Amino acid sequence: MKPIRVAFSGSGFKVPAHVGALQAIADAGYQPVELAGTSGGSICAALYAAGMSLSDMKTLALTHDWSNMMSFSPLAALRMRGFCDGKTLLAWMTEHTGGKTFADLSIELTAVASNIVNEGPFWFSRATTPDVPVALAVRSSTSIPFVFEPVTVADALLSDGGMVNNIPVDRLTVDAVPRLGVQLVSMELPLQPKARLWPHQFAMRLIDLMLSACESTHVSAAQAAGACMAFVETGYASTLDRNMPIEIRQRLFDDGYASAKKALAAMALQEHRIVETGTPA
């Protein structure tokens, strides 16, 4: 198996797309030696880094009932920091990662969160937070503003990592090992100015706008440094759909697989041309 470094973008409950990409990576003969993820992408990265098999990840992605992950918490709402306390997600991640800390992992893992205290990024990794449970890092990275209550770690107050780096491909180690970023994109139809939206729909539109402005900078920097990107169109699925139908989940998996397969083929061709000519095409 050939080594590869992989980064996953924020995804909400569109996790099947990332799992599909991981399957394509394995089928192409690659073995991830480093993973990075933001928000929903950190869920996929953490589960794999903690040792979950791809077959189990696929089963989970296609069948798991996410409905209780966003249960309303009166206490969290009273603190005016979110409507959900995130305890269910934390417990679920703790169970499926075996309570492992970053120091326990055999694969390098980075999870991205946003530090409200200093208005900058907070990087969870073996180097920066060796004794922190992986589950707590994922809980922090997935703290969607106004939905989940922020997480306190040491002197930091952490919210969703997408606000600072929604596709952390530029955080992967730059060396001879190829790097792949898997970014979920949404080509939604433009809104009419007088369109009526529920508050959560309007909030997601604002978040998507913020993320798209942030993503281009990190993608451009990573590509300039030689990273390859797989862009997965997922506009047909809702980011916060906790009851996503199996048909949509399967489509996400298939599209993630196809996009990663295409990107890996292009990457292999580029490497071949470099070997043949001695210079990038």
How are the SSEs placed, and which strands pair?
Blueprint: E1 2-8, H1 15-27, E2 30-38, H2 40-49, H3 54-63, H4 74-78, H5 87-96, E3 108-115, E4 120-124, H6 134-141, E5 151-153, E6 156-160, E7 179-185, H7 199-224, E8 228-233, H8 246-277
Parallel strand pairs: 1-2, 1-7, 2-3, 7-8
Antiparallel strand pairs: 3-4, 3-6, 5-6
Essential attributes:
281 residues, eight-stranded mixed sheet, single chain, 8 helices, alpha/beta, globular
Low-confidence stretches: none
The coarse overall form would be: globular
Which structural class do the helices and strands define?
alpha/beta
Distance between the termini: 25 Å
Nearest-angstrom radius of gyration?
A: 18 Å
> Which whole number gives the mean pLDDT?
87
Order of helices and strands: EHEHHHHEEHEEEHEH
List the total number of helices: 8
Please tally the β strands and state the result: 8
Helix content: 40-55%
Strand content: 15-25%
